[in-house]
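For consistency, the fold was encoded as tokens, which produced the following:
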Amino acid sequence: MRPVSEATRRVTGKSFSRKYISLGRILTHWNDIVGADLAQKAQPVKLRYIKHKEGKKPQASLDIATTSADATLLHYQKDLILERINQIFGERWITAIRFVNVPANTDGAKPKKQRKPLTDAEKNHLSSMLNDIGDPEIRRKLESMGEAMLMEESL
């Protein structure tokens, strides 16, 4: 018997490897591609493959998430962005860029839940577990980690 993960990797590896490796390479070089200012305002999110039946080379379209105002700026630099991306890969297989709108007034992060502070009983229990630790720095770090774990459990 072999693990399912081994078969999954073999089956999906050919289909997905180029797509996700390519998107990862674009993300890695994103500051170089669009510049530091625009890299903070726009993010590549998806590669869409365009398949041809006649055996031509596959082509791809890149989706970039940004606000509508920044999409206008990026639209004027579309050819330059395509040139820089294709320069990284050494071939011209990304042929189009599409801008996906992201609301300007959100940062995309979910609001964090408020954590309840530890009760005195929980603090005492944690402290008693760490009585035997002699090094004050290690004890402080373990207390911090223990507090975080207990707070996470209480959510």
